[in-house]
Amino acid sequence: MKLRTPWYMTGLLLAIAGTVCFAQWRGGGRRFGAVTSERYGVPEWTIAPGFEQDSFAFARVRYASSGYGRGGTWDTDYRDADLNLSLRLHQLTSLQVDPEGKVIDLTDPDLFNYPFIYIVEPGRLEFTDEEVNILRRYLLNGGFLMVDDFWGVMEYQNFYEQIKRVFPTREPVELPASHAIFHCVFDLKEKPQIPGVHEWLRSGLTYEREDAKVVEYKGISDDKGRLMVVICHNTDYGDGWEEEATNPEYFTQFSEKYAYPFAINVLFYAMTH
Questions:
Q1: Which helix (H) or strand (E) holds 92?
Q2: Where is 148: in which H helix or E strand?
Q3: Distance CA 23, CA 199 (A)
Q4: Residue 121 domain-assigned?
Q5: Is 174 helix (H, G, I), strand (E, B) or coil?
Q6: CA–CA separation, 139 vs 273, rounded Å?
Q7: Distance CA 205, CA 64 (A)
Q8: Sheet order of strands, 102-105 included
Q9: Do 259 and 246 touch, CB atoms closer than 8 A?
Q10: Local structure of 147: helix, strand or coil
Q11: pTM summary value
């Protein structure tokens, strides 16, 4: 089964609309529109008629966690991160964006309708054998996985062991700063390290522990060179989206400057390669 991917047209629109000035929307997602308790203040919108089956939904993977080690769970930063990122995509691009997003299990037959999936805090992630096989098929058939918000040696080792079950013969490799994923819409001059907002407000540091000072962006590609997994280690994009309204300086330095531009780059790459 292959992904349902009529995405080249929306990807082109994304590239064009991605040049919108960020200054137009500075201020925080939760400050736009009427506040509703179900959406934490993020406004509703509707998908244009006729595009219901061709809209983009931010798909967060629900996974099982082991009972030991460091790391969070699949729902870290949920639901604000998903809602805020969806809002920004709706505002800044020509994509038809699902306002709700999707929480999905790897075993869900609907998985192959989503060209992009997101895994957060995999420091204690544990795939089942069934999930390993499905994830391998999903990625090799054109899907894209972004992994985010895990810090230090122990958390990386756990994820490494799990992704090696998916691809025993493929090694995650550090992406050069020249890779298209850093430049395909927004031209990022450096590999960003985005801190969790509360740690940053407390310490002023962009890393969470001593063994997590250096940000890493590793990738796994298919046999044709298409990047199908981007691994964002020692950085926290989820907080960059979730906490954009928490502190104006954090918004300016991290959400506006890096978190949303890189997310748009990733989605453009995922839907056009």
A1: helix 80-92
A2: strand 144-148
A3: 26
A4: yes
A5: strand
A6: 12
A7: 31
A8: 102-105, 59-62, 116-120, 144-148, 227-233, 216-221, 173-174
A9: no
A10: strand
A11: 0.90
Q: How many CA atoms lie within 13 A of 128 on its CB side?
A: 9
Query: What integer pLDDT is reported at residue 69 of this predicted model?
Result: 65
Specify whether the CB–CB gap between 183 and 192 falls below 8 A.
no
Sign for the CA dihedral angle at 50, 54, 56, 59 comes to positive
In a domain, 53, yes or no: yes
Peptide bond into 79 cis (omega under 30): yes
Residue 99 DSSP label? S
- Rounded CA-CA distance 90/86 in Å is 6
Q: Does residue 178 sit within a domain? A: yes
Number of domains present in the structure of the chain? 1
* pLDDT of the residue at 70: 72
For the CA atoms of 248, 254, 258, 259, what is the dihedral angle to 10 degrees? -90
- CB-based burial of residue 133 (10 Å sphere; 0-12 exposed, 13-18 middle, 19+ buried)? middle
Residue 136 structural domain:
23-272
- Measured CA to CA, the distance from residue 15 to residue 13 in angstroms comes to 5
SS3 label, residue 267: helix
The residue behind tokens 């999930």 is 131
181 within 8 A of 266, measured Cβ to Cβ: yes
Instruction: For residue 141, give the nearest of 266, 4, 264 by alpha carbon.
Output: 4
Token pair 């609309």: residue: 17
For residue 47, what is the domain's CATH number? 3.40.50.12140
d(CA 267, CA 144): 9
Find residue 216's DSSP bridge partners: 233
Mean pLDDT, each 10-residue run in order, the chain (273 residues): 46 45 44 50 90 91 84 91 96 92 97 97 97 98 98 96 98 98 96 97 96 98 98 98 96 97 97 91
Question: Would 50 be classed as within a structural domain?
Answer: yes
